[in-house]
Every structure is written in structure tokens, then in C-alpha cells.
Design goal:
Layout: E1 2-15, H1 39-55, E2 67-73, H2 76-84, E3 93-97, E4 107-113, E5 117-125, E6 142-149, E7 152-160, H3 168-192, E8 198-203, H4 211-216, E9 219-220, E10 231-232, H5 235-240, E11 246-248, E12 251-253, E13 256-261, E14 273-279, E15 300-301, E16 304-305, E17 315-322
Helix pairs in contact: 1-2
Length: about 325
């Protein structure tokens, strides 16, 4: 018998409330804004997002995910509305969230089932970026949470790296800097505990084969050839098979990823170990017709409200260990 815990990540695509915040660029997501973002549409989005979150990884684990990283959320209030929805409320989710300096006002956060995970320490690390002319490029912070998953210490990182706005090549240096910050955070944790188990998740706006993963983080794809300080990425095999979490101009990308320290690959399964990873793609998350057939079914498409979900599919992995006799 094995005990299974599901770790998930989902880009919620612009989960904004309906209030106009004068400090951020959220004007479109207001009742009088371009998107005509009414209370009814907001509550529909909350229902849709909570439904998806409650079902990620359900094929092998009968309960909702135990740990959920999210991005593109406006503030703590929308997260509270999310976990208070009837789809999630019975599972008693806690929230760890910091406000980021991102110009659009979107943040990352970690949701956790209180009966599975006890946070011990958490911190938000600022990613300082500057344009060629020396101006600050405000983006999302990187979140790290240390806690006890069934009394076993594990660290979870949540990311939303800089977008490809302006083109992949032009924006690449920003994601390389984001990868360097990820590496510094991991190194700082390992200085305190060389055996720390760390899982980093997020919308990295890069594929598993891009330089941020291959040259900066040096994430490995082969679990059988890992040194103790290596990082392992289960998503590369999915990507090379043609799987993706979002589509753009009929090309699939796998920007939504999870990677981990090598010590989470353990055949003995005496402590929590990686089992397998996947992309959550039930039929209802897929646009079934028209120009975007096969793509993730979005809240808006081509500027028109269609009441879907997100432009990303969620991703997940399972941690397993042998159950106590």
C-alpha cells in the first residue's frame, strides 16, 4: 500500500476581482472596462477555477490536490473566494500569498490542505529586472514555502517568469535572470540542509529544452542518471512527445512545469518520492469547435466572453511513499 499526495500548478489566467485598483493596470477587468468584468462573470470564473482545482490528478488520487501553486491572481481576496467556494471549502485550504510589484497586479500563491501540510517558513524573493535603457521591469516575485507534508520536510517554490512579450529572443534574458534567482534560492536552502527536498513549479514561459532550464538550472531529463545535487524535470519527456499546456499559432508549448531535487527520486519509497507527472486535460477544458479547436477553453477568446477556464492546462505530479503498516 502506498500513500499518495498530489502536487499541482495552474495558471488561472487573470483571476481579478471587479474593483478598480488605481495602483495597477486592472482597468479592463472592471464592469465598465473593456472586458465588462461583472460580478456574475467573476463568480462564474471562481466556480470554474475551483472545479478544475478540485479535479486535478483525480485519475490516480481520489482526493483534491494537497498542494496547489497558482499564478495570475490579483490579490488575497480572490484566493479566499476561491478556497471558500463549495468545490473546495470542504478541504480546508490554507493560503500563502504576497503582493508582487508586477505592473498588472498579478501574483503567485500556494494553496495547501491543512490536514496534509503545515507551513513552517515562507518567503517571497524579488526578481530585479531592468530594460536596456535602465528602467525597472516590474514582474512577479518567486515564492518559497518550507513545511511538513505528513511530518516530512519539503520545500515548494511557485513561479511565474517574465513573458515572451516582444518575442522569445528579446525577452529571453529576463527568464535567464529568473532561472538564476531560482538557482540562488535552491542553493541557499541547500546551504542550510544539503538533503533538502525541493519542488519548483510554475508558468515559466519557457519549455523544458530552453536555455533557462538546460544551461542555467541544468535540469536533467533522465531519472536514472542523477547525481545527488542534480535537478530532475519530468516534463521534458512529455514535451518531446508533443504534449503541451498552452497553444499559440498552432504550436504547443509546455511552459507549465514542475521540477525537483534529485533526492525525490527514491526507489525505496520509504519517504515521499516522485511517481509520475501529467497534464490535466479533461474534455471540458478543451475548445471543441471553431478557430481555437483543441486549444484550452479560455474565459475570453478574441476579445469575446465565452465563459471558459484558462489559456493554460494545469500540470501535476504525484508523490508516493509506502504506507505505515
Amino acid at each position: 500500500m502506498y500513500q499518495i499526495r498530489t502536487i499541482a500548478f495552474y495558471n488561472l489566467e487573470n483571476l481579478f476581482d471587479t474593483e478598480n485598483d488605481s495602483l495597477i493596470f486592472d482597468d479592463d477587468r472592471t464592469p465598465s472596462g473593456k472586458d465588462q468584468w461583472t460580478k456574475e462573470r467573476y463568480l462564474g470564473k471562481i466556480e470554474n477555477m475551483s472545479k478544475v482545482l478540485s479535479e486535478i490528478g483525480s485519475s490516480a488520487h481520489t482526493s483534491v490536490p494537497d498542494i496547489i501553486g497558482v499564478c495570475e491572481v490579483e490579490n488575497l481576496d480572490v484566493l479566499q473566494d476561491l478556497v471558500d467556494h463549495q468545490n473546495l471549502k470542504p478541504y480546508n485550504f490554507g493560503i500563502i500569498h504576497f503582493d508582487s510589484p508586477d505592473e498588472r497586479g498579478i501574483d503567485v500563491a500556494l494553496l495547501y490542505k491543512r490536514d496534509a501540510f503545515i507551513p513552517v517558513n515562507f518567503n517571497s524573493h524579488r526578481l530585479l529586472l531592468f530594460t536596456d535603457d535602465g528602467n525597472r521591469n516590474y514582474t512577479r516575485d518567486q515564492l518559497i514555502v518550507e513545511g511538513l507534508l505528513d511530518n516530512e520536510t519539503i520545500y515548494f517554490m511557485v513561479n511565474h517568469w517574465p513573458s515572451r512579450s516582444g518575442g522569445e529572443a528579446r525577452s529571453r534574458p529576463y527568464r535567464l535572470e529568473a532561472a538564476k534567482l531560482n538557482k540562488r534560492i535552491i542553493d541557499s536552502v541547500r546551504r542550510e540542509d544539503i538533503n533538502a527536498k525541493i519542488i519548483s513549479m510554475g508558468d515559466f514561459n519557457d519549455d523544458p529544452i530552453d536555455p533557462s532550464f538546460k544551461k542555467v538550472l541544468e535540469v536533467r531529463k533522465n531519472a536514472k542518471k542523477l547525481d545527488s545535487l542534480d535537478l530532475y524535470g519530468p516534463m521534458e519527456k512529455l514535451y518531446r512527445k508533443g504534449n503541451g499546456s498552452l497553444a499559440y499559432r498552432d504550436k504547443w508549448n509546455l511552459f507549465d512545469q514542475l521540477y525537483m531535487t534529485a533526492n525525490l527520486i527514491d526507489k525505496s519509497k520509504k519517504t515521499y518520492s516522485f511517481w509520475k507527472a501529467g497534464i490535466h486535460t479533461p474534455d471540458y477544458l478543451i475548445d471543441q469547435k471553431g478557430k481555437y479547436k483543441g486549444y484550452p477553453l479560455r474565459t475570453y477568446a478574441g476579445g469575446t466572453y465565452i465563459g471558459g477556464y484558462s489559456d493554460h492546462f494545469p500540470v501535476f505530479l504525484y508523490l508516493i511513499k509506502k504506507a505505515a503498516p
